[in-house]
Amino acid sequence: MLPVLYTFRRCPYAMRARLALRHAGVAVQSREIELRAKPAALLQASPKGTVPVMVLPDGQVLEQSLDIMCWALAQNDPAGCLSVAPMVEQMAWIERNDGPFKRLLDRYKYPQRQQPPDQPALMFEAALTLQLQPMEQALQAQAFLCGPRFGLADLALLPFVRQFAAVDPAAFAAATLPALQAWLQGLLATAWFEAAMEKLPLWAPNEPGA
């Protein structure tokens, strides 16, 4: 039996879980779902109803993307993602990403949801100061965020930086972030990123093995 992964292709949290699983070479049964019509099997496994969620063959449920990433890399970590730097250093990047940077990203993507509406240019500058320029400084000194090899932090932040860059590609390209831009393009060109972004049909509960 394979672990079952409930996922949604465009969700950055689900994306980084898939990235770790692909990089580790861990086979799973992927179930692409529609977030507006969550299947009962997902809600039974995890009432929170968000993705990713992974159900292991022994029935254990992993409900957080970082838990899935660490589980996958504990099975197989060919690039030494968990050991490239102390975990406290890697987690510092991830915590800033998942907290204040993610909030800025949401405001940058959806300025009209705020009252009064946000100014995207201000959100862009705030994101530069908070996260993107510190990433640039780190990547000027080394190939990846925490050393010469990519690590958990790189895998975890990649979907969010990708999403930020896609909001206004011209503005991102014009920013003075050459090392960060090269880091992003290099990781997006990897075979395991392409595999993790494979389009899957929506999962139907009556499929064989469901």
Write the layout of secondary structure elements.
Layout: E1 4-7, H1 12-24, E2 29-32, H2 40-45, E3 53-55, E4 61-62, H3 65-75, H4 87-109, H5 120-141, H6 152-167, H7 169-174, H8 178-188, H9 191-196
Parallel strand pairs: 1-2
Antiparallel strand pairs: 1-3, 3-4
Written description of the protein model:
- It is globular, with a radius of gyration of 18 Å.
- With 210 residues, it is α+β, with helices and mostly antiparallel strands.
- Strand 3 and strand 4 (61-62) form a beta hairpin.
- The termini are close together.
- Helices cover 54% and strands 6% of the residues.
- The chain has helices spanning 12-24, 40-45, 65-75, 87-109, 120-141, 152-167, 169-174, 178-188, 191-196, and strands at residues 4-7, 29-32, 53-55, 61-62.
- It is built from 9 helices and 4 strands; from the N terminus they run βαβαββααααααα.
- Helix 1 (12-24) packs parallel to helix 3 (65-75), helix 1 (12-24) packs across helix 6 (152-167) and helix 4 runs parallel beside helix 6.
- Strands 2-1-3-4 form a 4-stranded mixed β-sheet.
- The mean pLDDT is 95.
